[in-house]
Amino acid sequence: HAGDDHAFANIYVRYRNIVFAIALGVLRSKDDAEDVMQEVFATAAKYLSTSTPDNLKAWFARVTRNSAID
To answer: Cα 62 from chain centroid?
Structure first.
């Protein structure tokens, strides 16, 4: 599944700054924001293997906010 890995790497590169910025805005802690970022991309790896949301940026924003609040 090298193609899947490459596709996910592209998604990570594209959305990592958005995810981090949202998490940092909610948590005000770089370490906590990095933890949330790991959680979000782990969730994304599972979810995106079977589904594709219509708006990936909005999906990442929602999942990040929810993870940061929890």
So the answer is: 9
Here the tokens at position 13 are 């590169």
What distance in Å separates the CA atoms of residue 30 and residue 53, rounded to the nearest whole number?
28
Q: What percentage of the chain has pLDDT greater than the value 70? A: 97
In tens, the pLDDT along 17-40 reads 999 999 999 999 999 999 999 999
Q: Per-residue DSSP letters for 39-67?
A: HHHHHHHHHTTT---S-HHHHHHHHHHHH
Residue-by-residue DSSP string for 2-24: HHHHHHHHHHHHHHHHHHHHHHH
Write out the two tokens for 41. Answer: 């991309």
Give the closest residue to 36 by CA, choosing from 66, 5, 58, 59: 66
